[in-house]
Write a structure and sequence with these properties.
homodimer; 327 residues; alpha+beta; 35% helix; globular
């Protein structure tokens, strides 16, 4: 497989470029006219660490790599713009395999209005993808960072958590399927084909969210980042956190299902702080624009520092930076 | 080594961010206010394919990874802006090794006015780096693509070629050092620490260059890209092409030194088409602004297609897309 031939076949499959892209793949660089301000993030995934080729199709691997990158743009309240993809191709991945990976990306790119604007393909010992994504807003104040949450703000969560962790458990041990009943396929999809909450992110930004983060490392892993960057404390009421259907039942097999669901990463939902007065309007707007996506108040922003997570049985958890510090 | 701890140490070492960067590393995405138009490119390097850790220091590997990415911006005539770095860290690379890689990048970033604005660090089976770079101009017309060369334009080259290929030969076989005499260190530096011609690129763009490309795959490999994208032919006079001192002598050991120097990649010089009337002014401006860098007319743009390279002895070469098609 020649790099040039592969790139030519890739270019044939690209969705139409967005209005900002003036020159796409095939030159020394892509040219864009961004408008006001940009949010840019890079995310890399490596075989055996972020995914396993025996558990996910190449299409799903491509989808998820782009989805996780776009999720960072969602967390800024950005409009998705361009993606630049680096592909490390191991000896056992042929040209058709590369195109299957790309198909997973192009489908999601088309859904989200993202232009695949450039990339690099290289031989490698193992499959890896690194994706740089650029999102847009009219000006830099329109983006929502992790810093900015104010005591008194409500803490809101899009969608449900725990599904991706339960999906992973199902992929690792198919016998758990009987615990999940009808929910197994949806749980596996949460793990393999996450959906970046771009619309909800933009709506929350417009509705006045003061701080926002996407849950890649789970509620217990990511809430402390928001607290630390904002210089505030967070109180989360575990009873209010929506858990994906079937997740607790599946996860009970490996420990305390509720705890594992609250800790579980890769749901790519958004956690945001929002002034109480804007809450009703934001909830309605998210629900309407993002196909019925629930926005749930799960706690509040308080003076101080750190995160307190109260479980339904009254136990109090103090998540640190990651799961391993969950008290 | 924790990812968070490494990233914190990385952030301490970053050069000051440029005027466009409003929020750097440490959030979901970096925020920038680009101004007019952007040129964006990604470049990946993998251990054992693009470099060998036994032949280059980690600092040099970091330098070269960023340099080759920035060279694509030079070829657009862009001003360097931001870089986003993905680092795949194998088990045998410790935190100090990662910081050494980064030191090579930060030194070049400071030299070129590039802000290291974000990144991702992941475990990996082998060392790889993927770097996305964003360059700027007042508007998209200010960039120079590969397309646009017109019959009658002069074909110009910055600096000299063949040095990086000779440097590689010296690294592979130190006994060749006696062929290179005093030039050996400079030739190795051409291979290990290439310099992106950002200033020359901007000057050529302002001077009216109609098409431009950087020589990563060598004159024989890259000139055909410019010809093809512009829909023109190129005639190159091999006698006019400046060859790095000592390169031919070193390369004579593995074949016809002059041919290998003309084919040799990784010099990262710029090849541009420029209207004849603007030539004198462009040459002066490049020489003045880029510390004595020569700009040499090596041929002309003609009607037709393909590249003809006439050697000093009268033989005519017709480079195709890469070395292997060199007739």
């Amino acid at each position: 497989m020649g790099e040039f031939e592969l790139l030519a076949r890739v270019r044939e499959r690209l969705p139409p470029a967005g209005p900002r892209l003036r020159l796409g793949s095939g030159d020394d660089a892509a040219i864009a006219v961004p408008g006001g301000a940009t949010a840019t993030s890079v995310d890399a995934v490596v075989d055996g660490i972020h995914f396993r080729r025996e558990r996910a199709s190449l299409r799903q691997i491509g989808h998820k790599a782009l989805a996780t990158a776009l999720s960072d743009l969602a967390a800024m309240g950005a409009e998705a713009g361009e993606a630049y993809v680096t592909l490390g191709v191991p000896p056992d991945l042929d040209e058709d395999g590369c195109l299957e990976l790309l198909d997973g990306m192009t489908a999601l790119a088309a859904q989200t209005g993202t232009a695949l604007a450039g990339g690099d393909v290289t031989r490698a010992g193992e499959l890896f993808l690194s994706i740089a994504v650029v999102g847009h807003a009219d000006d830099d104040d329109a983006f929502v960072a992790r810093a900015g949450a104010q005591p008194g703000d409500a803490l809101v969560l899009t969608g449900e958590v725990g599904g991706a962790r339960a999906g992973l458990a199902l992929l690792e041990d198919p016998r758990l399927e009987e615990q999940a009943a009808d929910a197994a396929a949806a749980l596996r999809a949460r793990q393999l084909e996450p959906h970046p909450q771009l619309r909800a992110g933009r709506i929350l930004a417009r509705a006045g969210a003061t701080a926002m983060i996407d849950l890649s490392d789970g509620l217990a892993g990511d809430a402390p980042h928001l607290a630390e960057r904002s210089g505030v404390g967070l109180r989360i009421d575990g009873e209010c956190v929506p858990i994906a259907a079937g997740a607790i039942e599946v996860l009970n097999a490996s420990g305390e299902g509720l705890l594992l669901a609250l800790e579980g990463g890769e749901d790519y939902e958004l956690l945001a702080a929002i002034p109480a007065g804007q809450l009703a309007q934001a909830t309605r707007a998210v629900h309407e624009a993002a196909e019925g996506l629930p926005l749930t108040v799960i706690g509040e922003v308080v003076e101080g520092e750190g995160v307190e997570l109260r479980l339904p049985d009254g136990r109090l958890l103090r998540p640190g930076r990651g799961f391993d510090q969950l008290a």
